Structures are given as C-alpha cells and as structure tokens.
C-alpha cells in the first residue's frame, strides 16, 4: 500500500472531519451572547434527549458501576446489563483523569471519527491501486449526499435534503456522529475487509478474527452483525453460483461449517439480548419501533442517498455480471443492508432505519468508482494511442485499460487507424457521462456540507440568544435556566444517586445525566410504559390528586424527591404543592425540590380518607 498516498488522503479527510466541528466552535463563541439567566451547555450532540441518555451511562462508569442500569426507570435494584458498555467503560477511563461526562463523550466522538476516516482511506486504497480512483473513492465516501431540495428561507436560497429528520444522512454530521454508531461503521468495514481477505487467501486467521469481532459487534449495535451475517451468506451463495464446477465437496462442507460457527457465535449475544428485553425496563427499547414507527419511505431514502445510490447499485450489478471476486464482499455488504431495509419495511419488529446505520454510503462509493472506471474503459480506442492502466485490486482479467490522450489524425505512412465518427461520439459521450457523474456527486456533497454547517450555526446562534420559552420542550431551542441547572447540581451533591426523582419530561431527561439520580419519567423509549407514565405525571403535577392519593402514588413508586421547576409549575397553573408530606429542601426563584417524608406503612393513610 502506498504509504504516502495514505497519509495525503488521511490528511484530506481530516480537514473534512474538522469542518464537522465548526458548529461546536461557533456555539462556544456565541456563549457570550447567551441570556444572563441561562446556563450554556455546549455541544449537546445530535439530539439533546438521546445525548443525555449517553451521558447518564458515562456517569454510571464514573460512579463505579460494573454494568449498565436504566436510570430512566424507578428500579435502582434491577440487575445491570452489558449492552452499551462502551459509554460506561469510557466513564471509568475518563474518571482516572477527572473528566466530565460531556468531555468524555466528545473525546470518544473524536477518537472514533479519526479511526473511521483512516478505515475509509484504507478501504479505498485496498480496492483501488490507482491514485485518482482511490482519491475519488475517499471523496465519494465523505461527500455522499442527498439530491437537493431547493427552497427559499427568509427570502434566501437554501438547499435542503430528503429525510433530513434522519441526521445520519447529513454528510457533515455523519463523519463525527454518535460514538457507538461510528464504531458500528468501523466494525462492518473491518468484517468486510476480513471477508475479502479470507476469500482471497483462504487463511483461517481471518475467519477467527471475524468470529471474535462479530461476537462483540452485537453488544455495540446489532444491525452491523446482522448485516454482516447476510453479507456472508450472499457472498458464498453468489460465489458458489459463479464457480459451481470449481467447488469441491470439501469446500462446500467447510463453508457450511464456518457458517454454522458464525451463526452459533451470533446466537449467544442475540439470545442474551432477547432475554434482557423480554421484560421491563429494557423491553421498552424493542417496543419503541413497533409503537412509534419511523415515517420511513423507500423512495425518500433513495433520494436521500442521492446519485451515489444509482451509480453504486449499477456498480454492484457490474460486479455480478463480470464475476469480480475482489469486490464481491463490498457488493454483498450493500445488498444485505438493502434486503434488511426491505424486510423490515414489511415486518415492523425493527425499524428499517436500523439498516441505514451500517455506513451504506461507503460500499456505494466504492462500487460507484468501479462503475465509472468501467465506463471510462469503454472510451478506449483499441487502435492505438497512449493508454493508462486503472490499477485495481481485482483479478487479473478484470484490470482496466483506459485511454486518456487526445487522438490526433493519422500521420502519412502510419499504420495507426483513425477513429470512426460513431466511435468518437461514443467515446466523448461516455467520457462526458462519467465526469458529469463525478462532478454531480462531489458538487452535491460540497453544497450539502455548506448548508449543513450554515443551518447548524444558525440554530446555535438562535439557541444562544433565546430567552423563550422558559423550558424548551419540544424542541430544544434554548439553554436551561441557571436555576434549573443548579437544581440538578444540588441533587448530585446532596442526594443518594439511587434515590428516585419525580419530574416532568425536561428535568427528568437531564437529571440522570447531570445529577446521577433515577427518575420515574424522562425518556422515550428508556422509560417503560412511557405513555401511561406521562398521563400519571401530568395528573400528579396538576395537583388534582387528594393528599392520600398523591402520597400513595409516590410511595408505591419509591419516589424520594420531587423536582418542581418551571415545566412542573406550568402544569399546576403556576401553583406550588401544599401536600403535608413534602418537605422543601432546595428553593430558588424557578425551582423547588421537595423530599417525600418517609413512611414505613400505608396504614397511616387511612386518617386522610
């Protein structure tokens, strides 16, 4: 592998990675413009309510836990699990350096993003030895973006994207996305590389590496492992159909044995996931997709992937037609992902969007370059002239010869034939189509990146200067009140972190992340029976319950503290609770925190009835 080219492409990719941090830098610069009564929380990444869940798991590592527990439920005694251990372990490591959960999160985000762009460059150089095409493969992987939606916002021209609600399709946000998603990209890429190397060399060490990585992949993000299993099956099925006469009985039996081992390996974590999600609180995670399905439309997804979808799928078709063994692993990667999308559009046990989360743009980028390079070979004038070999890491009979010089008329006495008019037109047309496709993909990526950064900066500016609403729900368009944030800090410093706090959704979402307490209500889908609990919480904070009913509600749910901020007060018509069993322990202009008076038996409730 050309080390110099790798370094150049890695540095080029690093520049694009840096661009994804411009909104964070801009937000930090705008902190000085924030309202004086607001506490600025920088870089609430992608979506605040999910970001806080990740912080809560990092905080569990800081607190010394050995497994992940759901702090968005009122079950502190529940058994911990070993999913999303990435965040808990990072908390343990960050705790050695006294880092905050937010700093730990963004360090992870940065480190894994750097590794990810290195993997992208490696993939491009693995399959394309030619510098030009390797560079294009990297650029396509970075800049893959939607067909444009051209509109006007505030009388200014604006370019939006299809499926903008699914932020992973945004090229700028995707390159430094959520840490466990980025690791999932890395894992599916490594598994594909290992599948390619195993198919090429037959060495068992690559298969052993596949087994180990596949096992752990399900604990990071199950979609990556599922897509690879589909890719493995498609790879060997297609290979068998291509070379039926060359497959011995031993090879077939060995493939079946390896497939059995992989499925056995996958069954262990899948069975574990099945067991822990069969009951609450974790059952709510699998129920969410069924009860709240994403508005997924296949046509919109294809438009959101952009022209790369069409060039990539044409490249996949070309691989199948030409029996290109070296690009078969990349082809089955995207085919397995597409099959997953289609299957789960029909069977709604999982959202089809889970199969977008396996870096589909990368195999599409590689296959697009393969297709475009093939188009350019059709421009070759076999009558002679200077020729350039498009070096690919492909089989010898699949190497391309592309002609790049401008033909000159045949000189007198030369044996070189002239091109026919039709051939010239064909060559020029194919060249035009090829370079137009390249230009379109790159141009759309640059434009979408520009408007993504511009939109994020505009949002961050508006968030910094906003003074209303008091509580931004929904969506998160202001920073929290200082009183509200200080209430979280008081809980962190003055309460047992196993204590359960009752609040409405906004405070309930922040408290596990910034205070470390359990909450009865705070996140969908982490909170079990979310809709039912929402009704219960609204009823409690409306102050409509009688004293005995209110106390029974709290005692039955082991609630120790009431966080009574602006969102809770608004529900109560800006009144304060007068229940005798609530003891004020923290008071500020916007926030009161009450401790629920302890009681060993419910018999005393009879005096209130």
Record the SSE blueprint:
Layout: H1 3-19, H2 22-30, H3 48-62, H4 85-95, H5 101-127, H6 131-143, E1 148-153, E2 156-161, H7 171-175, H8 179-201, H9 204-220, H10 222-242, H11 249-276, H12 283-291, H13 298-305, H14 307-322, H15 328-346, H16 361-377, E3 388-390, E4 400-402, H17 421-465, H18 482-494, E5 500-502, H19 505-514, E6 518-519, H20 530-541, H21 547-556, E7 559-564, H22 566-571, E8 582-587, E9 592-596
Parallel strand pairs: 5-6, 5-7
Antiparallel strand pairs: 1-2, 3-4, 7-9, 8-9
Helix pairs in contact: 1-5, 1-6, 2-17, 3-4, 3-5, 3-19, 4-5, 5-6, 5-8, 6-16, 6-17, 8-9, 8-10, 8-15, 9-10, 9-11, 10-11, 10-15, 14-15, 14-16, 15-16, 16-17, 18-19
Spatial separation of the terminal alpha carbons: 81 Å
Unreliable stretches covering 5 or more consecutive residues: 381-391, 394-412
Mean pLDDT: 90
Side by side, the strands of the main sheet go 6-5-7-9-8
Could you state the oligomeric state of the chains shown?
single chain
- By DSSP, the count of extended strands is 9
Q: What's the total helix number?
A: 22
The helix fraction, in percent, is 55-70%
In CATH's first tier, which class of the domain at 482-608 applies? Alpha Beta
CATH topology of the domain at 482-608: Rossmann fold
> Judging from the principal axes of the Cα atoms, what is the shape?
globular
Based on the structure given, which CATH architecture of the domain at 482-608 is correct?
3-Layer(aba) Sandwich
Rg, rounded, reads 29 Å
How can the largest sheet be summarized? 5 strands, mixed
Structural class of the secondary structure composition? alpha/beta
In terms of DSSP E residues, the strand content is 5-15%
